[in-house]
Amino acid sequence: MIFLSIFEIKFKQIIMKKNNNLKVAIVMGSQSDAKTMALCTKVLKKFGIKFETKIISAHRTPKRMYEFAQTAEEEKFGVIIAGAGGSAHLPGMISSLTSIPVLGVPIESKNLKGLDSLLSIVQMPKGIPVGTLAVGDNGAINAGLLAVSIIANTNNVVKKRLKNWRKLQTKSVKKKPKF
Ligand code: RP5
């Protein structure tokens, strides 16, 4: 029994070591998504997590999307954040090609204010999941934070930073409103 738990601890340490420098990929369908998706990069920088950014469109650059998703694991990405607007199939298509967790950020579109993007991303039929965040800036920031949480599972330094950041956030909320 004791031997087993020592073995389990060692195994966990090995897995942690192997995964403690996983990167995050931030991909977006168009240059026009960059302003929103920049908020993800801000979050990741704050927590000292490595990331790469790319423009990948499911319909305009399908080969690029395929190649990216096929090589994402060997490139040591631990999370993929995909932002897209309109008929936003990018996150779902990427998720269909890799088992790395995919977080979808619905970009606020001009005509439908992002409702089109939200429904396209959130309504994935069972079998291929996409973790869908809120429309626009809130979604981009929370996608960054969720990526931090996922990376924190195998990286104790990041876990500590996340816990501290949450404590500070809680402290910053005033008990009484100002009028
Ligand atoms: C999607 O189409 C992109 O994610 C973007 O949100 C939307 C519009 O793209 P542009 O026409 O601005 O390039 O693929």
What would your notes on this structure say?
α2 (34-46) links the parallel β1 (23-28) and β2 (51-55). With 179 residues, the chain is an alpha/beta fold. It has helices at 2-19, 34-46, 62-71, 90-97, 115-122, 137-152, 156-171, and strands spanning 23-28, 51-55, 77-84, 102-106, 131-132. A five-stranded parallel β-sheet has the order 2-1-3-4-5, sandwiched between helices. 50% of the residues lie in helices and 15% in strands. The model has no long low-confidence stretch (mean pLDDT 94). The protein has seven helices and five strands. 5-O-phosphono-beta-D-ribofuranose (RP5) binds next to loops.
Please give the number of β-strands.
5
- Contiguous low-pLDDT stretches (5 residues minimum) are none
Q: DSSP helix count?
A: 7
Query: Which cofactor or ligand species appear?
Result: 5-O-phosphono-beta-D-ribofuranose
What's the rounded overall pLDDT mean? Answer: 94
For the termini, the CA-CA separation is 61 Å
SSE string, helix = H, strand = E? HEHEHEHEHEHH
**Percentage of residues assigned to helices:** 40-55%
Structural class: alpha/beta
| Rg over alpha carbons | 18 Å
Shape: globular
Query: Strands across the major sheet, in which order?
Result: 2-1-3-4-5
Largest sheet: 5 strands, parallel
Strand residues, percent: 5-15%
Task: For the structure shown, list the relevant keywords.
single chain; 179 residues
